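== Protein entry: sequence and backbone fold ==
=== Local backbone shapes as whole numbers ===
==== Amino acids and backbone structure tokens ====
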Amino acid sequence: MNLRQPCRVAIAAPPFLLAAAPASAHHVMGGRTPSTFLEGLLSGLAHPVIGPEHLGFLIVGGVAIGAFGLSRALPV
């Protein structure tokens, strides 16, 4: 196993992580953030059908994982 690649990633990643802004996802519930567990669950389940780009991203991710034999934990 080549240890140079993980070292490069470990060195290059911190600036990007520090520059990242919090995500601002849009919710089905009138643009407000879910306030209960049930609202959050429903929002999460409905999120892929909000727009075609959301569903497309999930499909592409699934195809990539299946085609290249990657771990299903990769998106996490």
